[in-house]
Design goal:
Largest sheet of chain B: 6 strands, mixed
Helix content of chain A: under 10%
Radius of gyration of chain A: 13 Å
Strand content of chain B: over 45%
Distance between the termini of chain A: 38 Å
Shape of chain B: globular
Order of helices and strands of chain B: EEEEEEEEEEE
Structural class of chain A: mainly beta
Number of helices of chain B: 0
Oligomer: heterodimer
Largest interface: A-B, 21 and 18 residues
Radius of gyration of chain B: 13 Å
Number of helices of chain A: 0
Strand content of chain A: over 45%
Order of helices and strands of chain A: EEEEEEEEEEE
Structural class of chain B: mainly beta
Shape of chain A: globular
Number of strands of chain B: 11
Chain lengths: 110, 109
């Protein structure tokens, strides 16, 4: 069966520090992968999506970047975090039949 | 882009009560999902339901694609049903999914 792993679960980082969040998928090949952010309140904002290795589409220009070095690995990065980067970050994958989300990373930038 | 509206935005239920959550969307869709986000933030897929009706225990969902809405029914609600319920739609021909803002449900004992 397919599973998605996301880590760390929580992270507290100072302003200006770098960021690397990792997401891996097991049990499937060539999935579409996504990074979402959920800020205070309820909305889910699509940040990046990838349909294959090295293929990244950005939805919102911002302080973040994404990479897909392997088929089932999706990384969210920042060179210098801002206070506004705080939020709940969710990785998701899809093939046919909808999305499956990871457990999320709660990032607090202080 | 496609618009997704969920109602009500907030709902408080007495344990054991039934409820209906609604999702309206502005254009035709290939895919529609209902998610439950628990108090720990985990998004759980409830139904993948681009059309028709499905049931899973106390939950059921109906999507009428021609009329551009979907309904999520919760029967005999329990405190563990609390959280935010999201509707997410995927327009035909695209991979990106648009989420509604959710319905925040609180079930009180």
């Amino acid at each position: 069966s397919q599973t998605i792993h996301q880590w760390p679960a929580t992270l507290v980082q100072p302003v200006g520090s770098p960021l690397s969040l990792e997401c891996t998928v097991e049990g499937t090949s060539n999935p579409n992968l996504y990074w979402y952010r959920q800020a205070a309140g309820r909305g889910l904002q699509l940040l990046f999506y990838s349909v294959g290795i090295g293929q990244i589409s950005s939805e919102v220009p911002q302080n973040l970047s994404a990479s897909r070095p392997q088929d089932r690995q999706f990384i969210l990065s920042s060179k210098k975090l801002l206070l506004s980067d705080s939020g709940f970050y969710l990785c998701a994958w899809s093939l046919v039949g909808g999305y499956t989300f990871g457990s999320g990373t709660r990032l607090t930038v202080v | 882009g496609i618009q997704v509206e969920q109602s009500p935005p907030d709902l408080i239920l007495q344990e054991g009560a039934n409820s209906t959550l609604r999702c309206n969307f502005s254009d035709s869709v290939n895919n529609l999902q209902w998610f439950h986000q628990n108090p720990w933030g985990q998004l759980i897929n409830l139904f993948y339901i681009p059309s028709g009706t499905k049931q899973n225990g106390r939950l059921s969902a109906t999507t009428v694609a021609t009329e551009r809405y979907s309904l999520l029914y919760i029967s005999s609600s329990q405190t563990t049903d609390s959280g935010v319920y999201f509707c997410a739609v995927q327009p035909g021909g695209y991979q990106k999914v648009t989420f509604g803002i959710g319905t925040k449900l609180q079930v009180i004992p």
